[in-house]
Write a structure and sequence with these properties.
transferase, 5-stranded mixed β-sheet, 9 strands, peptidoglycan synthesis, 231 residues, globular, single chain, alpha+beta, 2 domains, transferase activity, disordered N terminus, 6 helices
Length: 231
């Protein structure tokens, strides 16, 4: 932990070269209390996403806006640096928005199973469909991180527990619907774009987890496909 704090401190006080390194390695929120004056490699893209003047040069106002975005979504170090992790989250948001109301346009989630919950790992989206009819979604989800990937394939919901608490991580998993070993749909309190991801479950907002609970039942199909960015 001391090592991580030292890396964060270097990112705050020394050179521009260290900022991308700490962004990749991670740092504690406490170590990222100030704004950086350094221009990031994705400065223009991040400025455009945030509605800032697109000049490719870091300003105090740019940093404040970037830092607020990072803080909201749990991106560390939250020092306002326009690096690969921050732009990766924004880019994913843009791709998710572009899907609109046709998440199964590529036809990869089966339409011959009746009601089925689909999870597109590549776009970090999930939805419920009945045949070709969209029932709910698409909604952003947070799936397994590198090394704890959400497993792909056709599965079935085999157990539901509205007030589940993880026996492994000792954390609440409200509206849990298990479909593959310990992997389940459930509510999570973090941003759906919070890197690096879950321990394998499909995290959802409370609103979406409650809706999935009301729409799905034991025995319903779940289809997971694609590959989460960064895994």
């Amino acid at each position: 932990m001391g090592d991580v704090r030292r890396r964060g401190a270097v990112a705050l006080g020394l050179t521009a070269l260290v900022a991308p390194l700490t962004l990749a390695l991670g740092a504690t929120p406490a170590a990222a209390a100030s704004c950086t004056t350094q221009t990031g490699p994705y400065q223009k893209q991040v400025e455009k996403f945030l509605g800032r003047p697109v000049d490719g040069k870091q300003s105090a106002a740019d940093c404040k806006a970037i830092k607020a975005f990072q803080t909201k979504h749990g991106i560390t170090p939250n020092i306002g640096y326009a690096g690969s992790v921050t732009w990766g989250v924004m880019d994913l948001m843009l791709k998710q928005k572009a899907v609109g109301n046709n998440p199964n346009k590529d036809g990869k989630c089966p339409v011959n199973k009746g009601r089925i919950a689909c999870v597109n790992l590549s776009l970090q989206l999930s939805w419920i469909q009945d045949g070709k009819k969209l029932v709910y979604g698409p909604v952003p989800v947070r799936t397994g991180r590198d090394g704890d990937e959400t497993r792909t394939g056709l599965k079935k919901i085999y157990w539901r527990n509205i007030d589940h608490v993880s026996s492994i991580y000792d954390v609440p998993m409200p509206y849990a619907q298990f479909f593959d070993g310990g992997q389940a749909f459930h509510q999570a309190s973090v941003s759906m774009w919070n890197p690096p991801g879950s321990r394998g479950c499909v995290n959802m907002t409370k609103t979406d987890a409650k809706k999935y609970w009301s729409l799905l039942k034991k025995g319903d199909d779940v289809f997971v496909y694609g590959r989460k960015p960064g895994t």
